[in-house]
Specification:
Blueprint lengths: L1 E3 L1 E4 L3 H12 L4 E5 L12 E2 L1 H8 L4 H7 L1 E2 L2 E6 L2 E7 L3 E2 L2 H9 L8 E3 L11 H6 E3 L5 H8 L8
Parallel strand pairs: 1-10, 2-3, 3-9
Antiparallel strand pairs: 4-8, 5-8, 6-7
Helix pairs in contact: 1-4
Bound molecules: flavin-adenine dinucleotide.
Flavin-adenine dinucleotide binds next to helix 1 and strand 3.
């Protein structure tokens, strides 16, 4: 049985980013997702400049920049006429390519567990417990019981 401090359930954009950042910072992390490689999924195909600014803080922007096409100018058209041209720095990239690029930044010290976590009420986290044991895992329900509050502090 493996022990871990932090289990990230879902290796999409959020989970993969968290796994890369926490793993790089030396935390004991496991990433859990049903797909070894993020499957084709048509979603956002660009990150705008405010999102890129946020990404810079993660230390992962450079890898995404290499995998993206960065546009330099946006033309805005109304009724068939160009009404504005403005400088831009959007990263254009398909969602699956973006997530898989982020996953490639996750250090080898972060194991990947191919698993679908059951979301059933009564067996909440039971699949996890088959293969993982948590030193500090608390569910929102546990927190509600112990603190009387609906929300939970950091685990
Ligand atoms: C059609 C569409 C267009 C969009 N366009 C834009 C856009 O232009 N700009 C923008 O900023 N945002 C856009 N979004 C929103 C953006 O895609 C989401 O905010 C973002 O993808 C959420 O990332 P996430 O990591 O939370 O979820 P996801 O990327 O969906 O990741 C969830 C992960 O959890 C895993 N998972 C699910 N269930 C389980 C389980 N039971 N056990 C284990 N793992 C599990 C999945 O396999 C997946 O890898 C769009 C969304 C859609 C649907």
């Amino acid at each position: 049985m493996r022990e871990t401090d932090i289990a990230i359930v879902g290796g999409g954009l959020a989970g993969s980013t968290a796994a890369a950042m926490l793993g790089r910072a030396g935390h004991d992390v496991v990433l859990v997702d049903p797909h070894a490689s993020y499957p084709k999924d048509f979603r956002c195909e660009k990150l705008d400049t405010s999102q890129v600014d946020l990404l810079q803080k993660t230390g992962l922007a450079e890898a995404l920049a290499r995998a993206s096409t960065i546009d330099l100018e946006v033309w805005i058209a109304r009724l068939g006429r160009v009404v504005e041209r403005k400088p831009s720095g959007q990263y254009d990239i398909l969602y699956d390519a973006m997530v898989n690029t982020l996953r490639a930044q996750i250090p080898a010290s972060v194991p990947f567990q191919r698993l679908t976590l059951s979301t059933g009420e009564e067996n909440h986290f039971s699949q996890f417990r088959k293969s993982l044991s948590f030193r500090r895992l608390r569910t929102a329900a546990d927190c509600g019981k112990s603190t009387g509050r609906a929300s939970c502090g950091p685990i």
